Amino acid sequence: MATLELYSKGESVWIADPDAVWVSAQLLQDYSPGEKQLLLQLSNGNEVHYPVGSPSDLPPLGNPDILEGENDLTALSFLHEPAVLHNLRVRFLDYSSIYTYCGIVLVAINPYDQLPIYGEEVIDAYSGQDMADMEPHIFSVAEEAYRTMTREEKNQSIIISGESGSGKTVSAKFTMRYFAAVGGAAQQTSVEERVLASNPIMESIGNAKTTRNDNSSRFGKYIEIGFGRKGDIIGANMRTYLLEKSRVVFQVNSHSLFRGKKFTWDKTDQKDRSSMSNIYRLSVHDCCCCVYVRHQQSETTISSTSCVPPESCLK
């Protein structure tokens, strides 16, 4: 708890609001221990009396204006819920930035829009740079893990977590895109493409509608990417697939079961085995995800994926 001397006239505080969650207010008089209320002025000019039963009931203090929009939450004088939410809001609305550091943790806001901040020129800008020298970005976290791995020759892990619809899957895709770009020649990106091409299969099986997201991933996965001595990608595999199995036997109100309905396996002309392509179709609610699988000798690879209307699927 902040010292009581800080609650002096002119200081800003945060008070709970039923609509805006938190609103800023200014103290109109000093607080003295034992007082049962604070006299505050809201941003709209209204004066309110804030009840204080004990010092623990005092509202959270606001940060100085100079710290608004800080790119690292740990730099704030007061780190609490309203301070975090306000700083993220300022960075998103005033600075058009969806990323903010919290120490070594990267906080991301899903903009629900395509942003031009993931191109090759951005990858080149973050390659070889320290996190402290660059603006917060998912590429900066990926670069830190990549440099530590190549320098210390130790395995690194990036944990991407968040609630439904927060953008975890997309963040994982951008991370793998960065590794593919900085990890070697252009042909190495085929590894990333093969990993990403498996997403329609997993999502058709493990995605379902929730109250927060119409196409929510109801599964967790651990993707392991292998690098060679020169830092180039040499392979990738999925070590763990955790499915929300409770959804199979129980359905929450306003939620749906898993999207996958049926699986079919069609084979083309058997005469030319070397160039034969198999199509693995996953019929989902509004589209049919067609995954083209090509056999070459003893190896089976995913060559491309697409989602089309159900009537366009092969019969």
Question: How would you describe this protein?
Answer:
The protein is α+β, with helices and mostly antiparallel strands and 315 residues long. The protein has a domain at 98-260 and 286-295: Kinesin motor domain (Kinesin). Helix content is 23%, strand content 28%. The protein has seven helices and 14 strands. The protein has helices at residues 81-93, 120-126, 138-152, 168-182, 189-197, 199-206, 246-249; strands spanning 12-17, 21-27, 37-42, 47-51, 99-102, 105-108, 207-208, 216-217, 219-227, 233-243, 262-267, 277-283, 288-296, 299-308. A four-stranded antiparallel sheet has the order 1-2-3-4, with no helix packed on it. It has a four-stranded antiparallel sheet with strand order 11-12-13-14. A two-stranded antiparallel sheet has the order 5-6. A hairpin with a 2-residue loop joins β13 (288-296) and β14.
